[in-house]
Design brief:
It contains 14 helices and 19 strands. By secondary structure, the chain is an alpha/beta fold. Bound molecules: zinc ion. Zinc ion binds next to loops.
């Protein structure tokens, strides 16, 4: 069968790989693996496959040298359907040159683009300069266990990747106010994702005889204090570099400010939070109150009340430090703070030769884009790879409008066919240029 990457992506989208870890997801992953085998026979014949952690796939493509191995990553699982969709989220429909479906951007577009690039290169008789590993996790949206298993497998084999490339960045349009050119943002670090629970206990009872300052009122006070607290601000090095890179493309009044971001870093760090929630998230740890629980009945006073808080921790800070800040802001010893899931921010990957390989491929395939480093706000599977590599980067080689970025984890996720094909070209260039 001749290579048809678009049909391969359509078939991949039709496998509803929502992974809740219950076991009921297995047939969907089998369907996806069968589609990959059908569309990429040369890849499956030439590469060595190891199954890791649940439904994870780890392929090794032997290169001329095993010296500087490279890992290309993507994940197979998708988040559940949310909102009202115009097209079947698992239909793989193409309408007016646009592929619709859950996972087109996050992250099956990337998964299939990697496979298509490898399949095409093998068909051309190409041998990579170094070993290329493909690591496709199966539970990125939940636990990341498959990615951790892949890291263990590589560690056992003594593989120390030269660099790792996962999802995270994009060729982003309208990413920064006043900058008309798309920015090819490559994530060089990611914030830490941590969940904590605030809990207050006390006397419950009948709602006809309430007391003041019960668990719900104390919890509410704690929440409003967190909502008003100010976290320290800083402009990290990758963000300074991003501003300097995009400065020449910015609106005139903004140009000198961005070009001197290094010198103006303290002033910019104070200014950005005033420009909206997105700029604010660039410079400080964010605190979001997400879940609330109190009494189960209208006439029952809660004897315990709790709130879930999702933290995105700035690179350079630690979970313990941030928890201490929350404790100080709340100022009430009766409010317990429990860390449900602690995720530290990642180290910062260097901007050296490996980073340049990625930005050179961006410049070739997306000449209209300005390549720039940045810090990813969300967590990706790639964070586990810092255990075996210093150079972990995050870039999905697709053009994404603000609306498309907003559709990730929401409704009407889609990818233009032409943009998907350019993504394949990016991986080809990257592997050819190793
Ligand atoms: Zn993803």
């Amino acid at each position: 069968m001749t290579l048809d990457p678009v049909a391969a992506l359509q078939d991949a989208l039709r496998a509803p790989t929502v992974n809740d870890g219950s076991g009921s997801e297995a047939p969907a992953f089998e369907q996806l693996h069968a589609a990959l085998r059908e569309h990429f026979p040369l890849l499956h014949a030439s590469l060595e496959l190891t199954a890791v952690g649940g439904h994870g796939l780890l392929f090794r493509w032997p290169g001329a040298s095993a010296e500087k191995p490279v890992v290309l990553m993507a994940h197979q699982d998708v988040v559940p359907i949310a909102g009202e969709w115009t097209h079947d989220p698992f239909g793989g429909e193409i309408v007016d040159g646009v592929i619709h479906g859950r996972g087109t951007l996050d992250d099956k577009g990337q998964l299939v683009a990697i496979c298509a690039a490898v399949e095409g290169l093998i068909a051309d008789g190409f041998e990579p300069a170094y070993d290329v590993w493909l690591s496709f996790g199966s539970d990125e949206e939940t636990t990341g266990a498959a990615a951790r298993a892949a890291v263990e497998e590589l560690r056992t084999r003594g593989v120390e990747p030269w660099f790792v490339l996962d999802e995270g960045g994009a060729v982003a349009f309208d990413a920064f106010p006043g900058v008309a050119a798309p920015i090819g943002v490559v994530g060089v670090a990611e914030k830490g994702t941590t969940d904590v629970r605030l809990r207050v206990t006390g006397d419950g009872g009948h709602s006809s005889t309430p007391r003041q300052n019960g668990p719900t009122a104390r919890l509410a006070r704690a929440i409003t204090r967190l909502d008003r607290m100010s976290m320290p601000v800083q402009l990290p090095a990758p963000t300074v570099e991003m501003f300097e890179q995009i400065a020449p493309y910015a609106a005139k009044p903004l140009r000198p400010v961005l070009a001197n971001a290094g010198r103006l870093a303290p002033a910019l760090a104070r200014l950005l939070p005033r420009l909206g929630p997105e700029p604010a998230a660039l410079v400080r740890t964010t605190v979001a109150i997400t879940t609330l629980e109190g009494s189960p009945a209208a006439n029952v006073i809660a004897s315990a009340a709790s709130a879930g808080v999702n933290l995105r921790i700035m690179v350079g800070e630690t979970v313990a430090e941030v928890i201490e800040r929350l404790r100080a802001a709340i100022g009430d010893r009766q409010v317990e703070i429990e860390v449900v899931r602690g995720g530290e921010p990642s180290p910062v990957s260097p901007r050296d030769e490996a980073f340049a390989k990625i930005t050179e491929s961006i410049a070739e395939v997306f000449p209209e884009a300005v390549p720039a480093p940045y810090t990813v706000m969300a967590a990706t599977d790639s964070r586990f790879f810092y255990e075996i590599s210093d150079r972990v980067y995050r870039f999905a080689p697709f053009r994404m409008t603000a609306a498309q970025r907003g559709s990730i984890h929401a409704a009407d996720e889609n990818l233009r066919v032409d943009d998907f094909l350019d993504g394949i070209r990016f991986y080809r260039r990257l592997v050819e240029g190793l």
